[in-house]
Amino acid sequence: MTLREKNEIPVIRKNNDIFTTFNQIQNMIRDRAYSIFTERAPDKGNSLSDWLKAESEVLTEIDLSLKDDEDHITIEGNAAGFLPEEIEIKAKDGVFEIGGLHAEKSSSKEKGMKMTAMKQINFYRSFNLPDSVDTNKMKVKLENGKINVEIPKTAHLDSAS
Questions:
Q1: Which residue, among 71, 36, 32, has the nearest Cα to 152 in the 3D structure?
Q2: What's the distance, Cα to Cα, between the start and end of the chain in Å?
Q3: What ranges do the domains of the chain cover?
Q4: Most buried pick, 12, 39, 43, 93, via CB within 10 A?
């Protein structure tokens, strides 16, 4: 890991910024759900099952946990393989969202033929946050594939003053 990679953090969105990662993931799911719909017989399934199947094909599960302590909320997880610039985080209006897009390309040459494979890994998770948090003071770290987010509670901040 280079010094540059170690000091970078995921993209943090706190306002109404356009959430490009989430929009891309949503579009991939929508496109896949439409493909599933067009490939199945009309009496075999419905739009919700098409959407859920598309989600399961497009998204990868990542381990994330939310811990509610006395003075802050901690969200920890494993984002191994993702670079900081491939992850976006948003905390607004009582909702914490995290998503990532990672693509890998590999090439090999066999019997005079060159083969290229592309692999894309996507994830998206959201948690409801308590009203007593200050998302403007959110701290995020991504180190050695481990993500750590701390969001202080406002009640604790008020009592400390």
A1: 71
A2: 40
A3: 3-160
A4: 12
For 3-160, CATH gives 2.60.40.790
Quote the radius of gyration of the chain (alpha carbons, Å).
Answer: 19
This prediction's pTM: 0.68
pLDDT tens per residue across span 60-119? 888 899 999 889 999 999 988 888 888 888 888 888 888 888 888 888 888 888 888 877
Contact predicate 130/8, CB 8 Å: no
Q: Which residues contact 132 (CB under 8 A, 6 or more apart)?
A: 153, 154, 155
8-32 burial, b at 16+ Cβ within 10 Å, e below that, comes to eebbbbeeeeebebbeebeebbeeb
